[in-house]
Write a structure and sequence with these properties.
alpha+beta; 207 residues; 14% strand; 5-stranded antiparallel sheet; single chain; globular; 62% helix
Length: 207
């Protein structure tokens, strides 16, 4: 009888341990599954975020270009596309330095209004900035232009935001046409250039 009771007690103990083990493994397994699902969800979210950032980056030059055109309205004169070859030969910017470029110049030779936006390849932004500044310096020193265009050239600016580089030479306006002295013309040209500079800065969150 004692042996029978002893056997029953052992069986009961084994069953109790099995039950406890089952209860322990259940939540743990569920926790592991939840952790795996969470990890997959985080990876998916990160991939979506990276894809969105890449999409935004690809559209940034176009967004800035549209913002500049909107800021000037009818006073935005560039209407002729500056192609890849011209960017290289005239402005010194070879295609292997950038991923994307939006560039426009004037249709009429009497004007010099120009807008250039370049998304340089990673780490090449500073080099593109130097090339555009070299073009600007050469234009001021050796360029042959109508007298009324000189203040616009002098007021032009090169801007860089990491690997995004811009050249703003915009400013033909009534204000410039009404200026009587060289000082007044330069001041008016600087005011006009600043319109484009402000539009670009705002696109990068700079007020």
């Amino acid at each position: 009888m004692k042996k029978l009771m002893y056997g029953i007690c052992i069986a009961a103990a084994v069953m109790s341990l099995s039950a406890c083990k089952g209860k322990t493994e259940g939540p743990a397994a569920e926790s592991t599954a939840e952790s795996a699902e969470s990890s997959v969800s985080e990876e998916s979210s990160q991939e979506d975020k990276e894809t969105e950032e890449e999409s935004n980056a690809a559209e940034s030059l176009q967004a800035v270009y549209e913002a500049v055109k909107k800021a000037y309205g009818e006073a935005y004169l560039p209407s002729m596309e500056i192609d890849e070859q011209t960017l290289k030969e005239l402005y010194g910017i070879p295609a292997d330095l950038y991923e994307e470029a939006i560039a426009e110049g004037p249709m009429i030779s009497a004007h010099i209004d120009t807008f250039i936006a370049v998304k340089a390849k990673e780490g090449k932004g500073e080099e593109v900035e130097k090339l555009l500044n070299h073009y600007r310096d050469n234009l001021l020193e050796n360029g042959v232009m109508y007298p009324q265009n000189m203040p616009i050239a002098q007021a032009s600016q090169v801007l860089r935001f990491e690997d995004d580089v811009y050249f703003v030479m915009l400013g033909m306006s009534d204000e410039l046409g009404q200026a009587e002295t060289e000082e007044e013309m330069l001041a008016a040209a600087k005011n006009q250039t600043q319109i484009g500079v402000d539009a670009i800065n705002q696109c990068y969150g700079i007020q």
